[in-house]
Design a protein that fits this description.
By secondary structure, this protein is of the alpha+beta class. Helices cover 26% and strands 20% of the residues. It is built from 7 helices and 13 strands. The radius of gyration is 33 Å and the shape is elongated.
Length: 272
C-alpha cells in the first residue's frame, strides 16, 4: 500500500513539474493566449442583434398590432388624412367574427394594384409586410367600414342610403348620402357610364342577380361614400385579406384655432 501511494505522489509531482516548465505562448506567466478577432466578434454581435430585432418585429406585427397612417379622405369624417392608427390583430387570430360597422384594415384586391399584380406571395413584399421596415416593399393597405356580411342582400339607393336585407341602415358616421345606385350585381364597378378597369367579370345572367355577399366575403364602404374606392367599385373583399381591426387613433394633426374675427379684421374695439 505504501509503495503504491509513493508512486502516485511521484507521478503527480512530475506532472506538475512538466506543466510548470512549459513555456507560456503569450510570453507572460499567468496569462492565457487570446485568438479572438475583435472585428469578427463585433460582426457576430451585430448579426445576432439584427436577427433578434427582426424576430421581435415579426412577432409583434403578426401576433399583436401594427401602426398605419391614413393617406386619403375616404373615411372622413371618422378618420382624417395623416391620422396614425393602431391595427389590432389578436381578435383575428382568435377567429372573432367581423361585425357590421367595424372598421377594418386590409390588403386591397389585386384589381387595385398596378398591373393588377397580387404581391401576397412575393418574398420581399412578405418580409416588408411582416417587419414594417421602410426600405422593403410591401402592399399598401385600405381602410373601410364593414357594411355587408356573408349572406346579406345589399342595395344602395341614390340619395337615400344602404339597404341590408330590405332594411335601411342607420349610418350617422357617413359624410353624405351616396350619389349612386347599386341594385344588382351588374351595377358594381360602374362609375357613371364608364366601367371600372378592375370591374368583376360577369355574364349577363349574373349581372342581373341581386347583390348577395358570398361566404367568407365582406362588402366594405368608406364613410366618405362619394370619394371612396371601395366595394361598390371593385366588388367583395375576401376575409383572408384582412389585416386587422382599426383600434385606436394615437396621433392626429390638430390645426391651430383661428383668431377671433375682431382680431383678424383689426377691429378697433379689440384693442389693436
Amino acid at each position: 500500500m505504501s509503495q503504491i501511494d509513493t508512486e502516485s505522489k511521484n507521478t503527480v509531482s512530475v506532472t506538475e513539474g512538466e506543466a510548470q516548465s512549459k513555456p507560456n505562448p503569450a510570453g507572460e506567466p499567468g496569462k492565457t493566449p487570446s485568438n479572438a478577432n475583435p472585428v469578427l466578434g463585433f460582426a457576430k454581435e451585430l448579426v445576432e442583434l439584427v436577427l433578434v430585432t427582426l424576430v421581435l418585429l415579426i412577432a409583434i406585427r403578426w401576433a399583436f398590432a401594427e401602426a398605419r397612417y391614413i393617406p386619403s379622405s375616404s373615411m372622413e369624417p371618422t378618420l382624417q388624412i395623416n391620422d396614425r392608427i393602431l391595427v389590432e390583430k389578436i381578435s383575428g387570430h382568435m377567429r372573432k367574427p367581423y361585425q357590421r360597422g367595424e372598421i377594418l384594415v386590409f390588403y386591397p384586391p389585386p384589381s387595385e394594384m398596378p398591373e393588377h399584380k397580387d404581391l401576397s406571395n412575393d418574398p420581399l413584399s412578405v418580409l416588408g409586410r411582416l417587419t414594417g421596415l421602410p426600405f422593403l416593399p410591401y402592399e399598401p393597405a385600405f381602410i373601410k367600414r364593414v357594411v355587408g356580411l356573408p349572406g346579406d342582400t345589399l342595395r344602395v339607393v341614390r340619395g337615400v342610403g344602404v339597404y341590408i336585407n330590405g332594411q335601411l341602415l342607420d349610418e350617422p358616421y357617413i359624410k353624405e348620402k351616396p350619389n349612386y345606385d347599386l341594385k344588382n350585381m351588374g351595377d358594381i364597378g360602374m362609375t357613371g357610364r364608364i366601367a371600372y378597369d378592375g370591374r368583376p367579370q360577369l355574364s349577363a345572367e349574373q349581372a342581373a342577380q341581386p347583390i348577395v355577399i358570398g361566404k367568407d366575403q365582406l362588402f366594405m364602404m368608406g364613410d366618405n361614400r362619394n370619394n371612396s374606392q371601395d366595394s361598390h367599385v371593385w366588388g367583395f373583399l375576401d376575409q383572408n385579406r384582412v389585416i386587422g381591426r382599426a383600434f385606436l387613433v394615437f396621433w392626429r394633426k390638430l390645426d391651430p384655432p383661428p383668431y377671433p374675427m375682431t382680431l383678424q379684421s383689426g377691429d378697433p374695439d379689440s384693442g389693436h
